[in-house]
Design goal:
The chain is α/β, with parallel strands linked by helices and about 200 residues long. It is built from nine helices and seven strands.
């Protein structure tokens, strides 16, 4: 009940229009990768999913933010079932701890779940899509059986700008793209550039 109420409230505040260019009812396991400009990003992607899919989709989020305070901790643990990663060990870090974190993400998918990730590694304040860090590539290598779905978020940087606490109601849009095609033997830099381009193209179409 809390999950449904939160999904409805998020869509109302953000005036979210949702477009699907992949099958929203698919039972395939997926890694949804999106652009990152707000703490609302994963909430909006999660809220836009059909109810049955939502129960099996786990956002990857920063421990420092989502474990701060009783309400956030409850939402992260009991509603979103988030995979919480220390900020210095997420998709954007090049250290050995980051490799362990990516391995944990791959394990958390298991044989039923999907993930929401943000390959830029940090929020952008200008609404542009930054360069992707290497974590998405390594995650895709560890779980080649899972679909890769680009998700473009528009206007979230204005609804809840970095540093703000309360969202400003205004229209937003979420576009779920077609699965990213796997290319045998593709290198890391080529893969990351192609994944980023898939997001950029969603905004241009």
């Amino acid at each position: 009940m809390i999950a449904n109420a939160l999904a409805s409230a998020s869509s109302f505040v953000c005036g979210t229009g949702v477009q699907w260019r992949c099958d929203p009812e698919s039972r395939a396991q997926r890694i949804y990768f999106g652009n990152h400009s707000s703490h609302l990003d994963f909430v909006i992607i999660w809220s836009a999913l059909p109810g049955d899919a939502r129960r099996l989709v786990r956002p990857v989020a920063g421990t420092d933010y989502w474990q701060r305070g009783v309400v956030r901790r409850y939402l992260a643990d009991q509603v979103f079932h988030a995979v919480l990663i220390p900020r210095t060990q997420g998709l954007g870090c090049r250290c050995d701890a980051a490799k362990l974190s990516v391995g944990r993400m791959a394990d958390e998918i298991g044989d039923r779940c999907s993930l929401i990730v943000f390959p830029e590694g940090t929020r952008r304040v200008d609404g542009e899509i930054g360069a992707f860090k290497s974590g998405l590539f390594h995650l895709s290598q560890l779980r080649p059986d899972v679909e890769l779905i680009p998700v473009l978020l528009e206007n979230l940087n204005r609804i809840l700008p970095k540093g703000e606490v309360l969202p400003v109601p205004m229209l937003s849009r979420v576009i779920f793209g077609s699965p990213l095609t796997r290319v045998s033997g593709e290198g890391k830099h080529e893969f990351l550039a192609r994944a980023r381009a898939a997001l950029v193209q969603l905004g241009a179409s």
